[in-house]
């Protein structure tokens, strides 16, 4: 084998180990342990509180909107860290690009505020 191909052996070994662990765990969980079932064991349990009613209660769309907005504005921070670390190397061009990026985020944030997406009824 060529040396380039030898570099992929650790990756292949890790892949085989990971897939093997998953397969062994799934097979072992089905084969080991007691198989006795009862009404008490099959009952839903959540933090020591008895389950009451149907679990499929509809959530407000506002909940999902706030969650997506949180992820969106949280991901922006991921782009700020590399910029801050490489601030001197990027120079004035990097500064102008970051200003444009932040302005676009501010436009989106003001749009969200205008649409009252963060207000709860």
Automatic annotation (TrEMBL):
Gene3D superfamilies: NADH:ubiquinone/plastoquinone oxidoreductase, chain 3. It catalyses: a quinone + NADH + 5 H(+)(in) = a quinol + NAD(+) + 4 H(+)(out). It is an enzyme of class 7 (translocase). Keywords: Cell membrane, Membrane, NAD, Quinone, Translocase, Transmembrane, Transmembrane helix, Transport. Belongs to the complex I subunit 3 family. One of its GO terms (molecular function) is NADH dehydrogenase (ubiquinone) activity. This is NADH-quinone oxidoreductase subunit A. One of its GO terms (cellular component) is NADH dehydrogenase complex. Pfam families: Oxidored_q4. Its EC number is 7.1.1.-. It comes from the Bacteria. NDH-1 shuttles electrons from NADH, via FMN and iron-sulfur (Fe-S) centers, to quinones in the respiratory chain. The immediate electron acceptor for the enzyme in this species is believed to be a menaquinone. Couples the redox reaction to proton translocation (for every two electrons transferred, four hydrogen ions are translocated across the cytoplasmic membrane), and thus conserves the redox energy in a proton gradient. InterPro entries: NAD(P)H_OxRDtase_bac/plastid, NADH_UbQ/plastoQ_OxRdtase_su3, NDAH_ubi_oxred_su3_sf. It is a multi-pass membrane protein. It is found in: Cell membrane; Membrane. Coiled coil: none annotated. The chain crosses the membrane at residues 6-28, 63-83, 95-113. NDH-1 is composed of 14 different subunits. Subunits NuoA, H, J, K, L, M, N constitute the membrane sector of the complex.
């Amino acid at each position: 084998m060529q040396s380039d191909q030898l570099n992929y052996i650790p990756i292949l070994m890790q892949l085989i180990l990971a897939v093997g662990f998953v397969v062994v765990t799934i097979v072992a969980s089905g084969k080991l342990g007691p198989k006795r079932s009862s009404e008490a064991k099959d009952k839903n349990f959540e933090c020591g509180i008895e389950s009451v009613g149907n679990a499929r209660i509809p959530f407000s769309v506002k909940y999902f909107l706030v969650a997506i907005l949180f992820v969106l504005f949280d991901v922006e921070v991921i782009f700020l860290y590399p910029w801050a670390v490489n601030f001197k190397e990027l120079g004035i061009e990097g500064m102008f690009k970051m200003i444009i990026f932040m302005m676009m985020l501010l436009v989106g944030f003001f749009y969200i505020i205008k649409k009252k997406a963060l207000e709860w009824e």
